[in-house]
Amino acid sequence: xxxxxxxxxxxEHQLARELxxxxxxxxxxxxxxxxxxxxxxxDGLARLHEYVRTNVSSSDSFxxxxxxxxxxxxxxxxxxxxxxHTEVPANNVSNWRLFESKQRDKAVLLFPHWNAxxxxxxxxxxxxxxxxxxxxxxxxxxxxxxxxxxxxCADGMAxxxxxxxxxSSRQAxxxxxxxxxxxQDRGYSQxxxxxxxxxxxxxxxxxxxxxxxxxxxxxxxASQFGEVVWTGTATKHIRESLQGxxxxxxxxxxxxxxxxxxxxxxVADRAIRIQVVSARFDSVFEPPLTHDIVKAITDYGVSNxxxxxxxxxxxxxxxxxxxxxxxxxxxxxxxxxxxx
Length: 340
Known about the structure:
- By secondary structure, the chain is of the alpha/beta class.
- The protein has helices at 3-20, 44-57, 59-62, 122-130, 162-185, 198-209, 225-231, 236-242, 248-254, 287-299, 321-338, and strands at 72-74, 77-81, 93-99, 106-111, 134-139, 190-196, 213-219, 273-279, 303-309.
- It has a single domain (3-64, 90-338), classed as Alpha/Beta hydrolase fold, catalytic domain (Rossmann fold, 3-Layer(aba) Sandwich).
- It is built from eleven helices and nine strands.
- It has a nine-stranded mixed β-sheet, sandwiched between helices.
- Helix 5 packs across helix 6 and helix 7 (225-231) runs antiparallel to helix 9 (248-254).
């Protein structure tokens, strides 16, 4: 192992330890109530599997959004009612930050990573804006001002509550599609998307179900949501909650409804360009999970590129790796929109 590699792994461990300090092991919950399935059902696990199978086969309906006129732009803040009602009132309002370019034709939605900080992605958004791209950055469900009072971790977005995790991903996808409505009404004709880590999962599902997305860049992308939770270092507290109470195959199957790999065939006939930026020393989205979905995208004939940076999952957000990722993202959209 080289000295450089040891430095990267040491920094990865340090950053992961800082994030792990507010993650707690919680009891497993099926979360049937979050999916409008009777929570008193004695065959709850079977009902949950049935729910997933039904909605995977009819995912166009599951991820279809409704048009609305409740958009409000105040300064650089866009808000509108979420189509999903949850137990946290603040989470029922979709929140976005707008970085608007003077050129009103190209825009990208930006879906941050799990537990992203309030000002995260400001520099990337500013760079994209400077290069003529408007950015609409999402406040993910149960994040920032959308979380319950006093909460320090976005457990509502991803946790050992299986149904709520599904609902939260669906909520983010539907809100993303509604944000595209707003952008188009504002005059934007070319729409792209950026997803980071968990945001890449959301972004890929949206891309698969909304033909208005013409180009998508994913900073970390994995094939299976359940496999990331089971194998990744960032979610070991969730795996600890699940192990011994539900099988790995069950988790993989239940969360297939929010897994990018499930929906790769939906982009097969689309004139879309995809870029994946991965980390060589990623212990959160293990490299085989990235390679699996890149291979699937390629096998379906979708135009794509893979750029691997010599860093880890967390250190991709640190200098100089963040500049490498930003440069790759900007160049990708310049090429993609030019050929659109």
